[in-house]
Amino acid sequence: MAEDKNNELSNGEANSDDNIISLSGMYEDYFLDYASYVILERAIPTILDGLKPVQRRILYSMKEKDDGRYHKVANLIGHTMQYHPHGDAAIGDALVKLGQKDLMIDCQGNWGDTRTGDSAAAPRYIEARLTKFALEVGFNAQTTEWQLSYDGRNKEPINLPVKFPLLLSQGADGIAVGLSTKILPHNFNELIKASIKILQGKKVKIYPDFDTGGSIDVSEYNGGKRGGKVKVRSKIEIVDKNFLAVKELPYATTTSSLIDSIIKANDKGKIKIKKVVDNTAKDVEVLIELASGVSPEVTMDALYAFTNCEISISPNACVIIDNKPHFLTVEEILETSTMNTKDLLRQELEIRKGELEEKWHFASLEKIFIENRIYRDIEECETWEEVIEAIDKGLKKYIITPGMKGVDPKGKIELARDVTEEDILRLTEIRIKRISKFNSFKADEIIAKINEELAEVKHHLATLTEYAIAYFERLLEKYGKGQERKTEITTLESIEARQVVANNAKLYANFKEGFIGTGLKKDEYIGPCSDIDDIIAFKKDGTFQVSRIADKVFVGKDIIHTAVWKKGDDRTTYNLLYVDAKTGRTMAKRFQVNSITRDKSYDLTKKAPGSKVLYFTSNPNGETETVQIQLSPGCKAKKKVFDFDFAEIAIKGRGAGGNIVTKYPVKKVTQLEVGKSSLGAQQFWMDEVSGRLNKEERGIYLGKYDTGDLIIAFFKDGSYELREADDMVRYEVKELDKIEKFDPDAIVNVVYYEGEKGWTMVKRFEVETSTLATRFNFLTEHRSSKLYFVSTHPSATVQYTYKEDKEKHTEELLIPEFIDVKGWKAIGNKLGEFKILSVKDVSPEIEEEVDDSEEQYENDKPIQKDLFGNTDKKENLGAGDTIEFDV
């Protein structure tokens, strides 16, 4: 029995004898109460007004004190404390954050800076008042539900009647007990337009927008629900080859935290910079000075990869609905907010309708009372009851109400409700002066005006959706100016850390003993590397392995080659000659190493014990080689010295045995010649969003690039730039006018406006400069000079429109016939003393020449050609294909 009793207590059940509750039971109940309180009363906003309790109480308190003038924040905090029981610090912090959002609170003084992380001045020094927008959309005592404050002395709103998606506009974040919310801010104008579409029955998609600007990738936003994420980047501009400037920040990042992350990345050797300066004033500017010889493009990518210049944010849209937390999408939140706004507008219209009906009711009674001189009927009344009865009796001669059954309505005024004693009391309160000056015509005008307004309100109620749409349109027109999107929606490519990390270490190797690492400074220097690289090592026994870089790594004795290894490298090709110990044959193979398991030893031979490497080279672009092979003098071979060309064998997998070179013993292998790349030219595209060159077929096709080939880019500011094709090169797409493969023999055709003379000019020139990654301006230096057209087309032709004598003229110009080729700094020839209104490229299409010297392929099979060079798809045959003959 004692055990049963103890079990009951341990399970948290009350003892009927002495009402004892166990500690575990108390913990369950009290902790649940605490968790509920934190969720509902502190951390999570409600869906109806989008506010947490402290924010709601601050705004309501400010409305109570609103007189159009600024109030000291210290005063507002003190006033709010009668509604919020958590102290002045919590109220002050929440008030500053609300003010910094610049939507509901009009601030005066130093309220801090969210861009730099500077805090606001003390509450006694700063002032605030509600904005006109807040007063219009946030308050209406008649549609507000009320509750008692925490001490029972005052009334406070359960929710403010906010007629705007405030939660999505301002965003919200909070951490409760076992629950959190993170709702990102969205664009003011886009929210209103989306609300209008919802009312029109259309589907909408909305995406975050931040005051700090930057760019955002919303491909995984998932409507702001749990599990989604967005990537946000700062805007970085290349000032020149020595400086980068951060112009816009990622959301919730300050210049201070950004600079700290840059300094840490530099200290760890991820990037190489000289110094960082915060020049932020009216606009954000964090100036980064680069170390000498460091590429601005690579550093820009490294900043995105290793610093707070790019951050990932995981939203979690959690809101309170009917005192319970719910996880919704931002579109569902917006729809709920829109419908709530529509319902609040309905309530306001119904309240106004009731007010107008009451106004019309009393105006009609007053007119009857005075016009028919009913007030004279009370002259002989001796008691108050007789007065009331006399007026009621007098009114009934001229009106009909719902309570008057069986009365002839002819000639009487129909009222919407019965006349009450209160109505009669109000009539008795009319002053003699008003009665003596009563104007029947004016009274009819007032009643007609009331009827007109009442009809309008009834029309709005009948067409409530259209009325709500018009309401949102008025908000957009009144407050939408200056609320344009600041954060650019784009697709942000992933940056591999290995591609952009700075070489912050040096690689050394002890070839004989088989050690590789960054700490072997007394051994042979291999080259620069980074601390996240992998290293590959080939050994004399025909094996290799890949390991993570470290101070000292043992890979095996007799290393013949080691280097930094890049995963997925499909260009580096290895040429190998080895002796197969089992057969004694010398084998040749060409192979690549694209993927491996770290620290695993791979055999490149036929795995016979005693096999050894005779010749090995690493070729970064798949170059072939010709070697001379000398056989042992005592062998039976007739030809003891012969050449071998690696171009004769194909590149195969690393596990292939290779091709037989000779069955006789080899004495010596000597390299004679390094050939061309056997992999051919690389194709490049430019991503139209990010401006990055790539080989993944994203964006504009730029052509095939072999060793020595260059890209030329023409910019809208009238400059050009030459660069080597590389997938680390990035262009600012907004600045580009044209980008293409550089042809040294091509002529550049230009039409531009010369600012100093005020003329439209034409020029043609050859690119004479050879410096790479440097812009050269081919227009005059006047600030008004402007590029209209640039092309390397051999028959460049433009159709242009200009205005002369108030008339528009459209003409066509074949540029090569208009002017000869001159120097790239020449001003050119005058086309006319006017500005061009529009220009169109009408150059003839160029027929692409087919290079018959290169074998053409389709679906990885060679295209067969007849004697006349014609092709027929049915001749592109493979094993197992059927051949049909025409007889």
Topology:
Blueprint: H1 2-10, H2 23-43, H3 53-65, E1 71-72, H4 73-80, H5 88-100, E2 105-108, E3 127-130, H6 132-137, E4 145-148, E5 155-159, H7 166-170, E6 172-175, E7 180-183, H8 188-199, E8 215-217, E9 230-233, E10 235-240, E11 243-248, H9 255-267, E12 273-278, E13 286-290, H10 296-306, E14 310-313, E15 318-321, E16 324-327, H11 330-371, H12 384-395, E17 399-400, E18 413-414, H13 421-428, H14 432-436, H15 440-462, H16 464-479, E19 488-489, H17 497-500, E20 505-510, E21 515-517, E22 524-529, E23 534-539, E24 543-548, E25 553-554, E26 559-565, E27 573-579, E28 586-591, E29 602-603, E30 612-619, E31 623-631, E32 641-645, E33 651-652, E34 659-662, E35 666-677, E36 682-686, E37 693-694, E38 700-705, E39 710-715, E40 719-724, E41 736-741, E42 747-754, E43 759-766, E44 776-777, E45 786-791, E46 797-804, E47 807-814, H18 815-818, E48 829-832, E49 836-841, E50 857-858, E51 861-862
How much of the sequence is in beta strands? 25-35%
Describe the main β-sheet briefly. 5 strands, mixed
Helix content: 25-40%
Radius of gyration: 42 Å
The CATH topology annotation of the domain at 505-677 reads as: Neuraminidase
Morphology call? elongated
Q: Write down how many β-strands occur, each being a DSSP E stretch of 2 or more residues.
A: 51
Tally of alpha and pi helices: 18
For the record, give the distance between the C-alpha atoms at the N and C termini, rounded to a whole number: 108 Å
Mean pLDDT: 86
Can you tell me the CATH superfamily of the domain at 505-677? DNA gyrase/topoisomerase IV, subunit A, C-terminal
CATH class of the domain at 505-677: Mainly Beta
CATH architecture of the domain at 505-677, by name, is 6 Propeller
Structural class of the helices, strands and pairings?
A: alpha+beta
Runs in which pLDDT lies below 50 for 5 or more consecutive residues are: 1-17, 849-887
